[in-house]
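Changelog excerpt

This revision adds worked examples to the README so contributors can see how folded entries look when concatenated. The first example is reproduced verbatim below.
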Amino acid sequence: MTTDLAPPTPPTESGESTPGPSGFAAAGAVDATKVYGVGDAEVRALDGVTVSFETGKFTAIMGPSGSGKSTLLHCLAGLDVLTSGATFVGDTYLATLDDKALTELRRTKVGFVFQAYNLIPTLTAEENIMLPMMLGGESGDAEWIDNVITTVGLKDRIHHRPSELSGGQQQRVAVARALASRPQIIFADEPTGNLDSTTGAEILDFMRRAVREFGQTIVMVTHDPVAASYADRAIFVADGKLDGELLDPTSEQILERMIQIGN
C-alpha cells in the first residue's frame, strides 16, 4: 500500500536528501525491511513496507502481537535501524544522519508518548514537560506551552512530581511534553495501555484535539479498536507487511478487520 504523498528525493552520493514535489508526508517508509537473527532463527519483523503519513492527521497502526507494528513505529522514529529500505521525517532520510544529527532531529522535530510515561521522578510535571527543550538550551514558546498545560488540565498540578500524580495525570504530562516543542510529528506507542478506559478516552480525545485544533501530526500504535477509532486513518500490519487501511474508522469496522487478519 502506498499513498499519493511524496517522500523526499532519495539521497545523493554526498548523502544529502533534497526536497521533492509538494504534498510531502510528515513521515514514512520506503521498502522498509527489518530482519532479526540469521538462518533458521531469522525473523522478518518488517518485509518491504512502503507507507506515508499525512501532515495534520491522526493515524493508528494496528496488527496482531508480533505483526511488526511497534517495529515500524520505532524505525520511523529513529529509535531502531532498518536492515534495508529507508524511513524519513519531513524531507530528511534518517539514514543520512549521523548519531548527533539523529539525536537533534528526535529532540527538535519528533515527539514521543510511550505506555510507560518515561517521566523523571525527581522533576516536577513542569520540568518534565520542558525537559527536551532544556536539554537543547531552549525555553520554548511560553504562550504555547501554557496553552498546552491548560488544555491537558495540568495547571493546578504543574509543581507536583510524578509520584504525586495519578497514572492519567502522568500520561497527560507525557503528552504535554511531546507537544511542548511543536514537533513535526508525534509517535505514540500504546499510550493508553496502562490507563483505565475513562482516563484513556480523555487522553485520546486530547490527542485528537491536538490534531484538529493545533494541526499536530500523530502516529499511534495500539491493539485497541476503540483507541484506533479516534484516528483519522487506521492502517493494518500483519506478518511484517501492510494489510489494508480504513479511513475515519469506527471501532466496529476495526474489530471486524482485525478478526479478518486473525483468520
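The second example, added in the same revision:
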Amino acid sequence: MTALAVALTACSSSASPAGGGKNGPADPKAVTGTVTVWLMDDAQKNWPDLVQRVNDEFVAKYPNVTLKLAYQGWADKVGRLDKAIADGTAPDVVELGNTETMKYVLSGALAPVDRTTFDNADTWIKALANTCTYQDKLWCVPYYAGARVAVYNSSTFQQATGSAEFPKTESELLTALDRIADRNKADRTFSPLYLPGPYWYAAMSYVAAAGGSIAKFDSAGNWHGTLHDARSQEGIGHFTDLVRKYNKGDLAVNEQNQFESMARGHAASFYGNGYEAASVTAPVTGDPSLKDAVKVATMPGPDGKPLPTFIGGSDLAVTAKSASVAAATDWVRMFTGSKSEQALADKDILPNNLTQLNPLKSKPSTAAAANAVPDAWFTPLAPGWGAVEKQKVIPDMLTAILKGKSVDQATKEADAAIDQLINKPS
C-alpha cells in the first residue's frame, strides 16, 4: 500500500443519518462523518488530475464530511482489505479488480447499488457489468475496462523486416520475430517478444483461441477445472512454446513491469494493456526518445483471428458496513460519471461504457484495445475464483511447465487444485 491518506476536509468522525435520493443524500450540507476511499495506485500514477477534480467536487457538495483517500498496491490489497473487513475498519469505497468482486459479493461485504442512478448505465460494457451482478442485483459499479494488445517498437521491426507495421497473422509475426532475433543475436538478453512465463492472462488467451477454458459449470451445479482438456492443453502448449523461444529474460518473472524491458532496449514487442505503451516512453518509468517508435496493434492469434483478450479493468464498490453509504455511493457516482469517464478516455483508458468507447475504436492509439472488447473472455464467475487466483494455481502451473513438467501432468494437477477451491466461497 502506498500509505497516502489525505483528509480533504475536517469534521465529526461519526456519520449522521441521511436519506439517499437518486443523486445522494437529500441535504448534502447536513451530512457529517467520514468517507474513506481506497483506490489502486494506477490512479495515482496515471490520472491524479481526475482524482483531484472528483475529490474537490465531493468536498464542495459535502462540506462537513471528511474525505480520506488511500492508494493501494495490487500485490497486497486483498490481504489488507480482508483484514480491514474482519477488524471493522474497512473503507467506505474500495476499488476491486474485476476478478476480485465475486468473492466480496458472496461474503456479504458489499452494499447493493441502484444501477439507474449512474451515468451511461444502459450502455455499460456487458462483461464489466457482469462482474458486479449477482442474483439480479448490482453490487459494484464498472470503473474502466482493459484489453490487451501488442505493444511494439516499430523502428526495430522496420530495421529487421523492412516494415514498421505489426504483422496481421501469427505466421507472419513468427517470421518477423525470427528475423528480429537474428538481427539482435549478439545481445543474449534481447527478446523479440517479451512474454513472461507466469503471465496467465496471456496464456489463457491462447487457451481461448484454441477453444479451451479454465473451468466449466456442470449440470450438477458445480464448477470444475478444464485445463487438462485437449483444447486447453493445446493453447497452454502454444503459449509456453512462444515463451521459451522468444523471451530471453527470466522466465519466472511476471508481467507486472514488462514495459521496462522495452524501455531499456531489451525487447521488440510485448503483449500488454494499451496504457503500458505510455509507460515505455514516460519520463520517469521509461525512455521518452522512443515516443515515435512505440506503437500498439492487434495481437494475432494462432487460428487466423485476433488473439482473444481478457476483459480486464476495475470496479468500485461501497462496503456493506459503511456508516456513510449514501455519501460514499455519491462519490462513486461522481468518479464514474460521463465527465470522469471522458477524462479516462482522453488518456487512452477504455471507459466503462460503449457510448464513450466507440470513438476510441478509430483512434490509432486505442483502436486495437477498443475493438477487442466485444469478443473478450473473462474468468469463471465462481464462488471460489478469488481463492484460485490467490493460490496462484495457473501461474504456478505455467512455471512448472517451463521448468520441465509436461503440459499433461501440470494441467491435471492444476485442475485438481481448482476443483478443491472453485466451489467454496473464498
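Reviewer comment on example two: The chain has two domains: 2-145+313-370, 148-310+377-421. Confidence is low (pLDDT under 50) at residues 1-6, 8-20.
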